[in-house]
Hints:
The chain has 74 residues and is mainly α. The chain has helices at 3-15, 28-48, 54-73.
Amino acid sequence: MTPKEEAKRIFDEYDRIEVEAPFYIMSRNQAKQCALICVDETSGYLIDMIGIDWNIRKIFIQELEEVKKEIEKL
């Protein structure tokens, strides 16, 4: 999956969430912010991960940065 496709997939997951009150749908901006938080949290876990080679983690982190850029474009 390309960073653009992954960004769209993550964003769409949040864009469909009904927030607390029935019939209240999260705004696109709120969905975007949630998707960005998701990517940041995942990057943080990769940075802290022990037992996996740093070079491999760095590749995943770079890919997540590309996903983040694509989310910001949505």
